[in-house]
């Protein structure tokens, strides 16, 4: 049984789970994130943008894999640049990279367990937390199968399991629905809605319909800057009838992005 | 200590330990068969130590740097401990040869080479990543074991072929110490490079 710790019921002392001011991040020499402002609280936030818009670089920076080159970034009310607070932040952070390496001879359970240990989950809580994470992504039948025997979609789900094993307060998912079949995607949207009730989720994706179905907010970025923020309904409403796309959200995406590009040119 | 097992397995530590042991054992075996001298030649000893450092160097990084880097625990401390344990393994293997017919001796020279080559491997892991971490140590060892390399009065030559200089050669000792300190410091504070997928 999971006991309630003091930290679980302590009031939160910050306004935004993720707060960035004029954030710049480099990918190699290229300034992939270029003066971005972001304020995200509890909920499911969809991160949309064209290829090369800086989504993955932003995700890696928010996951504290790479350091920002400039600007301010606070996670859970603590400045990331202050090393002493970083370990505390990381305990409450979950991250699914766009592509991740894994030791092929680990079983799914061992893989998730290893990450739980990386997140400093107390030893007595680890077996339960691992089992719960594996069940939430529907991989319990494969829990003791080796990682190398998994299909692409199963690997993706193992990746999601490791990201949620520590019940993160900030969860960053980079392209989580790649490789999932239609039924799994529906299950995954349900999972997003459940997780978004009490944590801050940022989901980077190309699939506009996932955003429309499961997100409470949309953040659209273009060339490393915030191009638009709003709700999925607002995005759908913004769509011009003449814009390309097969659904209102897709038309909204095309319209908003097109409008931002025009403004940027001027 | 469940986490230690997972940590060691994910970095293929068992395989590396086995290869390091095999490398030292093979050197001793070859020497015992083909020579009457109980002290293994410094060239063979150095090559064997380099192989040991190289396979242990592979354990300095992991296939999932992207997931490991944002870990909550204090990485520098763990990295330093990892390097110290690798040093301990190599020194223990070198000392263990004294139990057999062919020995790694004299100890100061063995220790200098172990420390220097492991430091160079750690430096390689930081700059080139774990997969190519052995490159620098292999090249420098090769320079030392070339037929025309050997003890020399010239300081530059002493530094260039530090692995085969006699015990007490200041330039060689300094060279090994610099490599060790640079490698250990860089690895402890930076670790292996993370690569965007």
Automatic annotation (TrEMBL), chain A:
The keyword Transferase does not apply. The keyword Electron transport does not apply. Gene3D superfamilies: P-loop containing nucleotide triphosphate hydrolases. It comes from the Bacteria. InterPro entries: AAA+_ATPase (IPR003593), ABC_transporter-like_ATP-bd (IPR003439), ABC_transporter-like_CS (IPR017871), P-loop_NTPase (IPR027417). Residues 18-248 form the ABC transporter domain. GO terms for molecular function: ATP binding. Keywords: ATP-binding, Nucleotide-binding, Transport. It holds the Pfam family ABC_tran. PROSITE patterns: ABC_TRANSPORTER_1 (PS00211), ABC_TRANSPORTER_2 (PS50893). Belongs to the ABC transporter superfamily. PANTHER family: ABC TRANSPORTER, ATP-BINDING PROTEIN. This is ABC transporter ATP-binding protein.
């Amino acid at each position: 049984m999971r006991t309630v710790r003091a930290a679980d019921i302590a009031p939160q002392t910050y306004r935004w789970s993720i707060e960035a001011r004029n954030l710049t991040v480099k990918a190699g020499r290229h300034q992939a994130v270029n003066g971005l402002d972001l304020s995200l609280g509890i909920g499911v936030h969809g991160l949309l943008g064209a290829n090369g818009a800086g989504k993955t670089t932003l995700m890696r920076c928010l996951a504290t894999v790479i350091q920002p080159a400039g600007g301010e970034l606070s996670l859970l009310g603590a400045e990331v640049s202050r090393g002493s607070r970083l370990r505390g932040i990381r305990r409450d952070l979950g991250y699914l990279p766009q592509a991740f390496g894994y030791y092929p001879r680990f079983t799914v359970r061992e893989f998730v367990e290893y990450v739980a240990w990386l997140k400093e989950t107390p030893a007595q809580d680890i077996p339960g937390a691992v089992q719960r994470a594996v069940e939430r992504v529907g991989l319990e039948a494969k829990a003791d199968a080796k990682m190398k025997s998994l299909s692409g979609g199963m690997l993706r789900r193992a990746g999601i399991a490791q990201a949620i094993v520590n019940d993160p307060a900030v969860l960053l998912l980079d392209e989580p629905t790649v490789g999932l079949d239609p039924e799994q995607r529906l299950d995954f949207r349900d999972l997003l809605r459940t997780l978004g009730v009490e944590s801050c989720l940022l989901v980077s994706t190309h699939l506009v319909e996932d955003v429309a179905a499961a997100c409470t907010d949309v953040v659209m970025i273009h060339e490393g800057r915030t191009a638009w923020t709003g709700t999925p309904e607002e995005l759908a409403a913004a769509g011009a009838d003449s814009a390309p796309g097969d659904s209102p959200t897709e038309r909204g995406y095309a319209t908003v992005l097109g409008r931002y590009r025009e403004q940027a040119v001027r | 200590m469940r986490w230690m097992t997972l940590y060691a397995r994910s970095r293929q530590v068992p395989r590396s330990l086995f290869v390091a042991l095999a490398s030292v054992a093979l050197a001793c075996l070859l020497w015992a068969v083909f020579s009457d001298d109980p002290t293994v030649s410094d060239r063979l000893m150095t090559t064997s130590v380099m192989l040991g450092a190289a396979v242990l160097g592979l354990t300095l990084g992991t296939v999932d740097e992207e997931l490991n880097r944002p870990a909550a625990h204090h990485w520098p401390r763990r990295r330093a401990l990892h390097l110290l344990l690798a040093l301990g393994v190599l020194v223990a293997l070198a000392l263990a040869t004294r139990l057999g017919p062919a020995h790694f001796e004299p100890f100061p020279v063995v220790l200098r080479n172990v420390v220097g080559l492991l430091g160079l491997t750690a430096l390689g892991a930081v700059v080139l990543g774990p997969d190519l971490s052995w490159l620098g140590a292999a090249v420098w060892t090769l320079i030392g074991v070339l037929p025309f390399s050997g003890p020399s009065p010239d300081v530059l030559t002493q530094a260039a072929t530090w692995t085969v200089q006699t015990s007490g050669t200041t330039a060689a000792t300094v060279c090994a110490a610099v490599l060790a300190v640079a490698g250990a410091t860089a690895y402890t504070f930076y670790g292996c490079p993370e690569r965007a997928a």
